[in-house]
Amino acid sequence: MLSVKIKHKLAIHVPVILLAAITVLPATSVASDVRTWVKKLHPTTGFNTDCNTPVFSLPAPLPADLHFDVIGLYNPDAPAQGEMRDAFTLQQSDCETSLGTHIATTSNLDLLAMLGAPEPDSRLKNLRTHEIPKIAAPDGTRFTLPPEGSVTPPFPPTNTATNQPLTLGEFRGVRGKMKVKCYADGTSQVKIKLRNYQPHELLTIWAIWLTTPPGAAEPAPVPLPFGGVPNVTVANKHGVAKFTRTLSYCPMDTLPTGEQLLMLDIASHVDGNVYGAVPGTPPTETTFVDPNDPSNTFTSPLSEGIVTLTRGAIPMTVHAVRRY
Predict the structure, then answer these.
(1) I need a labelling partner for 164 at 20 to 30 A (CA). Which of 102, 206, 213, 255 fits?
(2) Which residue has the higher pLDDT, 223 or 10?
(3) What's the Cα-to-Cα distance from 147 to each of 101, 144, 268, 270, rounded to whole Å?
(4) Strands 202-211 and 134-135
């Protein structure tokens, strides 16, 4: 997910087919003043990317191939800390050759530079998903939780038993569809069904708008909570999540003021928290228990790829450059 903090720089009418008294509506259709679309989820490994390759072609004035990976591949030989500690950077070939490798946290320096955000401490990089620290103290201190069943209750708090490390193949194995109905009065209804997520995975849905943020000089991709706050859904024990909203506008149309909804991003909150109207925590100093030495603590800002991972996108007004 892109952070909401962005610096200054940066119908079709399809005939209704009647057959044996059954109305068949194609992917984009118009019937009785109701326009209907069915959109498919695309697996992603960051903003508009799948293994360091653009997924959608973005409109001007954005670069058509703008994309940022926010996960890497786990590096078992990385040092405990220091500038050499990081996950392996995703490459296009990894989507074919590394599907069995665990994903891990990283920080995309190009994305951080664009957002003007600081780089997180190296000890927060190259963590597999079940190792990501979570708030576990009243003062907000975060530390890595043990799995449920590994300790005698009630303390310490634990991860759920289903919170397991994910391989790249599992991370990219998500599927889903969205149905959009836009009505003549300008309102719409959307229904989203997501599959193949982790059981009980915490997700939020973000509308990526092409708009000029307040105080900015140029349009930029801005994430806003789709349908308002809360924009949360939780996968059930089978990894299925559903999301339904009624909107005051048609998300498939460019607004009269020029704003365009590019896509929906599905954010996975691997740190167990949601943050209201922004995808992740602000880049403020946060206290962590050192995973290498639990008797010590350190402070670090957080960033995309550490607390939230983009795990799927649904195109709205953009078009895919790859087939899935």
Answers:
(1) 206
(2) 223
(3) 21, 10, 19, 14
(4) unpaired
pLDDT exceeding 90 applies to what percent of the chain? 74
Q: Is the pLDDT of residue 14 over 50?
A: no
Q: What is the pLDDT of residues 164-205, one digit of tens each?
A: 999 999 999 999 999 999 999 999 999 999 999 999 999 999
Dist CA 87 CA 94 (whole Å): 13
Q: What is the DSSP letter of 138?
A: T
Q: Which domain holds residue 146?
A: 17-320
Count structural domains, the chain: 1
Q: Which one, of 252, 230, 250, 305, lies nearest residue 2 by Cα? A: 305
Q: Give SS3 for 209.
A: strand
Cis before residue 61, ω within 30 degrees of 0?
Answer: yes
DSSP character at residue 77 = T
Those residues with Cβ within 8 angstroms of residue 20's Cβ, 6 or more apart along the chain or in another chain: none
Shortest CA distance to 262 belongs to which of 59, 46, 98? 59
CB 301 within 8 A of CB 117: yes
Residue 22 located in a structural domain? yes
Three-state SS at 161: coil
DSSP string, 275-317: -TTSSS--S--EEEE-TT-TT-EEEE---TTTS-EEEEEEESS
Confirm whether 7 is domain-assigned: no
Task: Please indicate, yes or no, if residue 256 is contained in any of the structural domains.
Answer: yes
Q: Which long-range contacts (CB under 8 A, 24 or more apart) does 222-226 make?
A: 222/2, 222/4, 222/6, 223/1, 223/2, 223/3, 223/4, 223/265, 223/278, 223/279, 224/4, 224/277, 225/276, 225/277, 226/264
Tens digit of pLDDT for each residue in 105-160? 999 999 988 888 899 999 999 999 999 999 999 999 999 999 998 998 999 999 99
Residue 292 tokens, joined: 């290498």
Distance between CA atoms of residues 74 and 288, nearest Å:
21
Give the per-residue pLDDT at 1.
56
